[in-house]
Amino acid sequence: MISGAELLTIGYEGTTLAQVIAALHAAQVELVIDVRAVPSSRKPGFSKRLLAGSLQAEKISYLHLQALGTPKAGRDAVRTGNVGHMHTIFRAHIASDQAQAELAQASTAARANRACLLCFEHDHRRCHRSLVAELITAATGQRIVHLDPLA
Known about the structure:
Elements (H helix, E strand, L loop, with lengths): L5 E6 L5 H10 L4 E4 L13 H10 L3 E4 L7 H8 L3 H11 L3 H16 L2 E5 L9 H12 L2 E4 L5
Parallel strand pairs: 1-4, 1-5, 2-3, 2-4
C-alpha cells in the first residue's frame, strides 16, 4: 500500500474512543492530524493529551495543528446550522501566515504517512475538515476518503 495515496478524515461526534480507534485501525491509519482549534473535549478520551496517549498506545502517531482549526465564530455558525457562514469564516482564516505554514506541514505529513484528519463533527459536510482536506489534496493529488466510525 502507498502510504500517501489517500487522505482520510474522521469525526468523533456520537462515538466512543474505541470506535474511532477501530475505524483508524481498519483504515490502516499511521498518523492522526488533529485539526481542532481547541483540542479539548467533553467526550471522554478526546482531549489532546488523552487522545495522543491512546493513539500512541495503538501505534498511531498524533499531530495537532491548531491553526487549521475553525475560529470560534465559525464553530458558532455550525452550531446554529449556518455551515455556509462557517465556510466563509474558515476561508478567511486559512489565508493567515500561521494557517498556511501548518497547511504546508499537514501536506508534507500526508504525503509521508497514511494520514487522517480528525475533528468533532460526524458529518464531514458540516465540518471544516473537508475544506482542509481539499486544500491538502490540491497540493498532494491524493483522493479524500471520509471514515465513518459508526458504520
